[in-house]
Amino acid sequence: MPVLPRLPERTSALPLVLGIVLVLVGGVGVARMVWDRAGSASAEAPGGVDRIDRNADRADRAADPRAARCDGAPLTAPRELRGVWITTVENIDWPSRPGLPADQIKQEYLGWLDLAQKLNLNAVFVHVRPSGDALWPSEYAPWSEWITGVRGQGPGFDLMQWMIDETHRRNLEFHAWFNPYRASQPAPAGAGPDINALAPDHPLRKHPEWAVVYPSAGTTGSRLHFNPGIPEARQFVEDSMLEAVKQYDIDGVHFDDFFYQYPVAKQEFPDDGAFQIYGRGKSKGDWRRDNVNLLVKEVSQRIKQVKPWVKFGISPFGIWRNDATDPAGSPTRGLQSYDEIYADTRLWVREQWLDYIVPQLYWNIGFEVADYAKLLPWWADVVKTTRVQLYIGQADYRVGQPGPWSDPGELDRELALNRKYPQVSGSLHFSAKNLRADALGAVSKYSAHFYSTPALPPLMKWLPNNAPAAPTVTTAVEGGGVKVTWKGKGTSSAVYRVADGTAKLVATRRGGDGDYTGPKGTYCVTELDRSWNESAPAG
User: Fold this and answer.
1) DSSP H or E stretch at residue 393
2) 377-390 pLDDT tens trace
3) From CA 13, how far away is CA 19, in angstroms rounded?
4) Range of lowest pLDDT (33-42, 361-370, 498-507)
């Protein structure tokens, strides 16, 4: 029976049966597989219409880029998020194994950045809190075991700061990817359900009353969680993530779909005690959803209070509810995140607690249970009347599996379909190792069609707008080409070359000063602030 995964995290999966649909749940970042009686599966999306709109009513800002010209030619630059998830849990992507020397840890990470640049991506989403741990020296969490191989032991330097510096050096956005409530990974690789197997400074050792074991000890995949129903636990989890926002120059805070654990067999999540104390007169389902909603709302508010320019987004399971359950749901027959994991993803968009949402549409076009071609317009409609940007999770890891995924053109067709929906503002690919593997040449195929030139991330007009002044530009003929040099005050710079009547984006650089050497022609340069608001061109 063909399968359909999601954001993989670990090699094992937890089976469960929901009526006629079976969903396999991996771990952090996981592979979710939806099965049906005769099914298969699917994934992703980029896209975008006119994402170049700016605050044109602000007289003190630079001119609308649509009106900007270079030697009479209009500027054209793709505006879409092109990202990749880099998973640390169980060393799926990076580091290749725990306990590597610091130099090798660094070289491997730089290799992922090189790949992102080669593919003309503009953002990386790095797993910095897989399971109640941290990839930075934290007051709230122990060092992640996936770096040194020892729970609570760091690599001897500030890994987060180094990663951000190197990522920004390549003018890529750095989104810190957190799993809020997971506290351990299943044994034997992780601590499993045993609090005493956690790092000595793990917070659940000090507060065992915050811990929940699910699935139960002795069940495959058993692990520890922070109890979402205990307000003090939720506050602590928020504080632990906000620490990274306060201390580091990250571009975004990113969650995937792990709030309440995906259900395992017929086991009930053991939170009766917290429900009796904090239930607030609600049904248990509504109470659980409210707990997750509070986390999402509070994190959103707190991020913007600390650093208004930091983006906040979530990558949920691709089905909110089926239309057989709720007329507002999608034409699907799979697991429902609203009912099974208490994630009211549609509400988060409607309330605009998020800057972006990345539904994991890890099913192929035509999949009976969850058809990519039907889910895509459903999500486009969800965001249509909001400011929330829609990116789509892309299942690169599925390429080469039996059925539709044995066709290297599946992702290519999905990306083409995305372009038909103006609400789609980008793509996020799972995961880094699959981009590098390029199974069946699928990555090469869609990259040539959709990522052949650089792209600027889409504007979020509600973020701070500090569009810089145009740079000072000089050009000089060098051999058979032209060297362009500029000085400015932007966070980054963009280089355009006139060809075929338009000035097309050919390169970006970090910082306001820079240079670029290319073939003979006419060039212009713009400056951008950290929210990607763009100056007038100079050349």
Assistant:
1) strand 389-394
2) 999 999 999 999 99
3) 19
4) 33-42
